[in-house]
Amino acid sequence: SGKSATANTILGEQVFESRIAAPAVTKTCQKKASRKWKGRELLVVDTPGLFDTKETLNTTCREICRCVLASCPGPHAIVLVLRLGRYTQEEQQTVALLKALFGEAAMKYMIILFTRKEELEDQSLRDFLENADVNLGSFIKECGDRYCAFDNSRNTEQAEKEAQVQELVELIENMVQNNEGTYFSDPIYKNTMERLRRREEVLRKIYADQLKTDIQKVEVECAQACKNKMQEKERIIKLLKMEYKEKLRHAREEARNSIFRDKRDGNMNFPLRISNWFKK
Q: Cβ distance 268 to 65 under 8 Å?
């Protein structure tokens, strides 16, 4: 559908892998990336299509878990990327799965973004959608008539791409205003934030204890040596403190990785939500 290409257009540069291929290119939830844009910070998480690959339930749940961890405490907008054309059965299944995962409330935060805008030629997107599939029309209304179209092709002028980003951001801003400034959150996001907070606190304590132990070790070693070791001691302690600060800066990311590696928390109970749905 062009999810990665759309993410790159929003970011203004090639961050995520995007190319034409028969199988899906994005098979895992790619790390979030951000961009400073007109006084805002646009943060994007590129995800695999939920039905792009013939994966197992556990694999699907694992990638959704990655997405949740990368977008905590929750996204202001869920952008569903569809290729301009008919509303396929696969895309309808994706919408149904999103509802099964996050509930009907997710529709309040969803924007539909059509790719291949260039295929409209002289026709407006609104006119095109007036003659669209009745299921697509119903879904658009369910999303509050929030939609736009992107031309991500390499031949498109950068100014036109920036205008597309402007249109999307305006849609998001209006939606956020209607949602009273809130971001999407549900029990999974709330529980994940609490897990992240606890893991981060544990890591910070581990880092602080390690720093204290390392400094004490250096002081003992230097106390047993001659005085010319004092400068070396100060240099080593300075390096240890720099390493400690660097670890603190990355504590949240390490907490995310820790949760994802934990087999008890790794699927966040997603299989319980959707295993029956997959059997339908």
A: yes
Residues of the chain above pLDDT 70, percent: 79
CA 168 to chain centre: 17
Residue 15 CB neighbour total at 10 angstroms: 19
Of 34, 25, 10, which is closest to residue 113 (Cα–Cα)? Answer: 10
**Residues near 28 by Cβ (< 8 Å), separated by ≥ 6?**
48, 63, 66
Q: What is the pLDDT of residues 58-113, one digit of tens each?
A: 666 677 777 777 777 888 888 999 888 878 887 888 788 777 777 788 888 899 99
**Which H or E run includes 81?**
strand 78-83
Q: For residue 181, is it left (φ>0), alpha (ψ between -120 and 50) or beta?
A: left
Distance from CA of residue 198 to its chain's centroid? 21
- For 144, the 3-state DSSP assignment is coil
| C-alpha separations of 195 from 62, 75, 108 in Å | 17, 18, 26
Using CA of residue 206, residue 73, residue 166, residue 44, what is the dihedral sign? positive
Q: How far apart are CA 151 and CA 153, in angstroms?
A: 6
Does residue 195 contact residue 259 with C-beta atoms inside 8 Å? yes
Residue keyed to tokens 């995520």? 16
Whether the Cβ atoms of residue 118 and residue 151 lie closer than 8 Å to each other = yes
Rounded to 10 deg, the angle between the 57-70 and 251-261 helix axes is 160
* pTM exceeds cut of 0.90: no
Over range 132-143, report the average pLDDT. 86
Judged by DSSP in three states, 125 sits in: helix
Q: Torsion angle of alpha carbons 245, 248, 250, 251, nearest 10°? A: 160
Peptide bond into 73 cis (omega under 30): yes
Q: Is the pLDDT of residue 166 over 90?
A: yes
* Alpha helices (H) along 34-124: 57-70, 89-102
